[in-house]
Amino acid sequence: MADIAADIAALEEALTTPTPEVISDVARLEGDIVVLGVGGKVGPSVAGMAARAVREAGVDKTVYGVARFSDPAARTTVEQYGVVPVPADLTDDEQLAALPDAANVIYMAGNKFGTVGNEHFTWMMNAYLPGRVAQRYRDSRIVSFSTLVTYPLADVATGGSREADWPGIVGEYAASCVGRERMFEHFSRKNGTRVLQFRLGYSIETRYGVLQEIAQAVYDGTPIPLAMGHASVIWQRDVAAYAIRSLHLADSPPRKLNITGPEIASVRRLAELFGERFGREPRFEGVETGTAYVMDGTEQQKAFGFPSTTLADMVDMVADWVVKSGPTIGKPTKFQQRDGAF
After folding, report:
1. What pLDDT, on a 0 to 100 scale, did the predictor assign at position 1?
2. Given a cut of 80, is residue 280 above it in pLDDT?
3. CA pair distance 74, 300, nearest whole angstrom
4. Are strands 154-155 and 291-292 parallel, antiparallel or unpaired?
5. Rg (CA), the chain
6. Distance CA 48, CA 18 (A)
7. CA separation, residue 12 to residues 46, 80, 246 (Å)
8. 203-225: average pLDDT
9. Distance separating alpha carbons of residues 120 and 175, to the nearest angstrom
10. What domains are defined for the chain?
11. Residue 96: how many CB atoms within 10 A of its CB?
12. In this structure, is the dihedral angle defined by the CA atoms of residues 123, 126, 132 and 135, taken in order, positive or negative?
């Protein structure tokens, strides 16, 4: 257990290590940074990297992390990087109004899992609340996390969905996420607020994500469905770096930016690679359909270059974690859902 604890500490240290470009971009940002919804899977990496970049840049800024912090461990995690935790319920108007002012906002709050049967709450979190936040921080730059499921299932052969593509809503979760983008767009146009719609698909690290789920299935001998035969993936450190750097790209009307790796990953090929590392034959069910939730990352590459972590590196790190029986976060991505039911 001590070795695993050390592995977790090393992983979290690596995920929050700022790149030179992040340090440079943070140094030229004006004002403080607030991360709203910092308690999720990606939030601690974003806030932690920002705080470390502030220190390494030698600038006088505060990084705030806002969440309910119902799990005390989440608060401890962000505090250790120098993030100032702000316990708050964003859905409470008085608590929202009392949040620290900040010139730079990274908005990560939302609801996905459990949408079915609780659609009203998902719409409140994903569409109503963003409008309230957009008004509270109307004078700030805002990077708003969005998702690749705002797009329709794309033909894999064409390279994936592009920023100019029209939304193709499948299910209430996707619809509510388009609602989030529309709320930020409305108040950006009304108030001149600079916004970037950060369309992410899919962030991964060793404890969760598309690769971890495929690797675990291969290791356990569980059949892997192939109907969703491809996926867009990107390492979480790169996600955090791009989220921070995207503050400089926020604009009015909002800019949209796909955030993903440079290749569309084949689920079958990933399973085969994990099988080679484990000495086990992957099991499959069904066949590839030729369409999937996949994105084209060309605009991201123009803005930031290629991600620092390759797909091959991700496969190696995830395989090693699974062999060690490393802990998981226990929140499946449900990336194989084609009907929008989350």
Report:
1. 34
2. yes
3. 30
4. antiparallel
5. 19
6. 9
7. 11, 11, 22
8. 97
9. 12
10. 2-152+159-206+236-261+297-304 (3.40.50.720)
11. 19
12. negative
SS (H, E, C) the chain: CHHHHHHHHHHHHHHCCCCHHHHHHHHCCCCCEEEECCCCCCHHHHHHHHHHHHHHHCCCCCEEEEECCCCHHHHHHHHCCCCEEEECCCCCHHHHHCCCCCCEEEECCCCCCCCCCCHHHHHHHHHHHHHHHHHHCCCCEEEEEEEHHHCCCEEHHHCCECCCCCCCCCCHHHHHHHHHHHHHHHHHHHHCCEEEEEEECCEEECCECHHHHHHHHHHHCCCEECCCCEECCEEHHHHHHHHHHHHHHCECCCEEEEECCCCCEEHHHHHHHHHHHHCCCCCEECCCCCEECCECCHHHHHHHCCCCCCHHHHHHHHHHHHHCCCCCCCCCCCCCCCCCCC
Whether residue 137 has pLDDT greater than 60: yes
Question: Which residues 6+ apart lie within 8 Å of 14 measured at CB?
Answer: 237
Q: Is the Cα dihedral 226, 263, 249, 58 positive or negative?
A: positive
Distance between CA atoms of residues 40 and 113, nearest Å = 12
Report the pLDDT value the prediction gives residue 2, as an integer from 0 to 100.
Answer: 41
**What pLDDT band is residue 70 in, cutting at 50, 70 and 90?**
confident
pLDDT tens digits for range 16-25: 999 999 999 9
Predicted confidence (pLDDT) per residue in 141-154, tens digit: 999 999 999 999 99
**Whether 196 contacts 185, CB under 8 Å:** no
Distances (CA, A) of 285 to 7, 112, 192, 209, 282: 34, 26, 50, 20, 10
Q: Both tokens of residue 115?
A: 């949408």
Amino acid at 132: R
Rounded Cα–Cα distance for residues 100 and 321 (Å): 38
Residue type, 297: G
Of the ranges 52-61, 106-115, 157-166, which one carries the lowest mean pLDDT score?
A: 106-115
